[in-house]
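Q: Given only this backbone (275 positions), what sequence would you predict?
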């Protein structure tokens, strides 16, 4: 008998699993998930620091047909909020390409950072650029899967660092069905109260679609995005568990460590969350 799906599916961010776009170098994400007994994986489709278009994956059918939860993370350097045309316009095109490629592997959603504008720019322009991104895509059939905007750790003119900024962004993009990713390390670094963060975010966005459950190497309010293992960072582990429980949605670990360490973290979470 097939076991019922996990109430809180727990995934782990894994490497791309590709050497040249045509061959898997480590057995691929499904093998990594099995090695860690994970319910899901989060993957990049290209080098996260590049502007390369994603290529078809040789394991696309296997990922699409698997019961393993797949989440795709868009490249880090995509910034559709930017006032620089040379960054924003290619970024919109690449965002759409990655969304199509993510849908082709059966991803539940695609995580993308909120981006930022320059210090001399009005943040309202960045918000409007996000709205234009969704508006343009809507005219071309929309994104083929949920686009999940993630809160960020630092940056004075970031679109998704402060709750007030996220509220302005959601006023512009919420109607398009944008999803939200709560990163606990980023929230901690930005000075948010993790004891109330789930309610605080939902009061703004109405939703949390995914939690990046990460500890932090640095103190509260540091603005530093340096992840730590689930147990042993600056954030009390029991507080992270409470965030996961309150959010009641899929979880992805982006914590440092090898497969054995991640397998241990998954066991800890399953026991704490009851399934």
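A: Predicted residues:
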């Amino acid at each position: 008998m097939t076991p019922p799906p996990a109430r809180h599916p727990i995934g782990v961010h894994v490497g791309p699993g590709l050497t040249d776009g045509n061959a898997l170098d480590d057995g691929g994400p499904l093998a990594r998930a099995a090695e860690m007994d994970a319910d899901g994986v989060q993957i990049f489709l290209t080098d996260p620091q590049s502007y390369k278009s994603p290529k078809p994956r040789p394991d696309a059918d296997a990922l699409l047909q698997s019961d393993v939860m797949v989440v795709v993370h868009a490249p880090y350097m995509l910034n559709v909020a930017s006032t620089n045309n040379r960054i924003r316009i290619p970024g919109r095109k690449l965002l759409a390409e990655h969304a199509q490629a993510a849908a082709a592997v059966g991803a539940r959603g695609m995580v993308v950072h909120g981006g930022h504008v320059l210090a001399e720019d009005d943040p309202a322009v960045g918000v409007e650029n996000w709205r234009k991104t969704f508006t343009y895509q809507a005219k071309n059939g929309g994104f083929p899967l949920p686009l999940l905007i993630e809160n960020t750790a630092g940056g004075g003119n970031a679109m998704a660092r402060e709750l007030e900024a996220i509220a302005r962004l959601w006023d512009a993009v919420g109607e398009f069905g944008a999803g939200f990713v709560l990163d606990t390390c980023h929230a901690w670094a930005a000075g948010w109260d993790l004891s109330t963060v789930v309610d605080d975010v939902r009061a703004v966005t109405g939703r949390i679609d995914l939690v990046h459950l990460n500890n932090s190497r640095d103190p509260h309010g540091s603005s530093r995005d340096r992840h730590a293992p689930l147990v042993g960072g600056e954030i009390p582990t029991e507080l992270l568990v409470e965030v996961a429980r309150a959010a009641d949605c899929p979880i992805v670990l982006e914590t440092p460590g090898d497969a054995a360490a991640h397998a241990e973290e998954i066991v800890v979470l399953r026991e704490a969350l009851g399934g």
